[in-house]
Amino acid sequence: MEHNLINLMSPIVGLGINVLVQVSGFRFLASLPLLKSLFLGCGVGLIGVTLMESYLHLLGQPSGNFIALFWTNGVIYMALSYCYFHFINMGETARRIRILRELNDSDNGLTMDEILKRYNANDMIRMRMDRLLNNGQVYEKEGRYYIGNPLMLWISKGMVAMKRFMLGKGSEFD
Question: Counting Cβ atoms within 10 Å, is residue 39 exposed (0-12), middle (13-18) or buried (19+)?
Fold first, then answer.
């Protein structure tokens, strides 16, 4: 019975560790940017799941069950971490969410001109390119931009592949 309860709680405890490490890292380590804090939290949470599952194995859970439950709980944990990542991402970067928050914070509402001034396409592209350059995801050489660290490119390709599989299209513009 105890094994079953720990197995049930393993991905949830892992997510709790993930959130705690991510929030603490982002708030208290000035040099840790948001994306890296999310990766750090995810990795430490996965270590937590691994340790909990290993503890069960040491308590005498049969090996076949250990492997199956470890992989199952690992997949569940990663799915929960994926949801947490997008929860943070949506609140931090989604323009629709930010516009709604700004409208809510404005006592007299905002005109379309005021919104367009705040969300100038050139400024937005410049800020995104600065972020990509600062994170090493792209680099600039002789006025042209190239892929630097391809990690986010691989992640985005995986996301498009999952969207195509699940939704039948790669983006809202297809």
Answer: middle
Residue 161 to residue 164: CA distance in whole angstroms = 5
| CA R_g for the chain | 21
Angle at 61 between CA 60 and CA 67, to 5 degrees: 135
Domain spans, the chain: 2-93, 97-167
pLDDT at 159 over 50: yes
User: How confident is the model over 131-149, as pLDDT tens digits?
Assistant: 889 888 899 999 999 998 8
Strands (E) in the chain, as ranges, are: 138-141, 144-147
Burial grade of 90 (CB within 10 A; 0-12, 13-18, 19 or more): exposed
What are the pLDDT digits (tens) for 25-74?
999 998 888 888 999 999 999 999 999 888 878 877 665 677 888 899 99
Packing angle, helices 63-93 and 34-58, rounded to 10: 160
CB proximity list for 22: less than 8 A, separation 6 or greater: 37, 38, 40, 41, 42, 84, 88
Contacts of 132 (CB under 8 A, 6+ apart): 138, 145, 148
Q: Which residue has the tokens 């094994």?
A: 3
By residue count, the chain amounts to: 174
